[in-house]
User: What shape does this take?
Amino acid sequence: MIGGLFRSSTRDIPDVSQVPKHIAVIMDGNGRWARKRMLPRVAGHARGVEALRATVRGCVDRGVEYLTVFAFSSENWRRPQDEVSFLMQLFLKSLQKEIRRMHDNDMRFRVIGDLSKFDPRLVDMIREAETLTAGNGGLNFTVAANYGGRWDILDAMSRLMAREPGRLERFTEDEIASELSMSFAPEPDLFIRTGGEKRISNFLLWQLAYTELYFTDVLWPDFDDGALGQAIGSYQGRERRFGRTSEQLKADAGE
Ligand code: IPE
Ligand code: IPE
Ligand code: MG
Assistant: This one.
């Protein structure tokens, strides 16, 4: 950390470790998983919670410090009303069920996204879970709900501009980064998207600048510890150059 902020990949060379410190996941493919089994789409979402539980465990076991998952995008409101309400109910029920366990496992739970459109009961429960786990030092587990990368950047910029209405100088990367909703975490080392699509879908746009991207056809409900191990294995085979040459990296490593 520098001056209370994590290193920005475009301004400094971040520390790179064997095990990714921060993994960000787009949990995609629930609907297709269910359809393949002639089940309603929502059955895939229910099974997706199991896969998430396994992924959390896998991250804890491997010493990953931050796990951030995309649960509901700002564009997912466009889905059929009954699917949206099912997802909200599932979020509420899963949270109710898991709060205690997360706390007992020393996890720190957070939600990022615009919660103003959510049922107040759900918002209360989220705040309660965040407060309960605020002092924990284990895995930082963050759920992105009604989150959009553009919303996040606009929100940060608006706050900065409101604070200094007459300001003429350019804002700095650090100023913007410190207002984003993931300001408490280093930028993701590894991004995983299941379900076969190769896109970012408005997830952490700013923070993914130098993240290693991993796409798998595995549908989210089938994503298990082995699949997580494969993703991390792929990450470990990458050379993270951050703009430098391979020769420079080898020289720095004293080879
Ligand atoms: C991801 O699975 C879960 C959410 C977006 C909430 P999908 O529901 O997008 O599954 P597919 O892509 O239709 O298979
Ligand atoms: C992205 O999945 C959002 C979540 C996983 C929550 P989608 O399935 O909604 O993404 P698109 O619309 O196909 O890009
Ligand atoms: Mg999808």
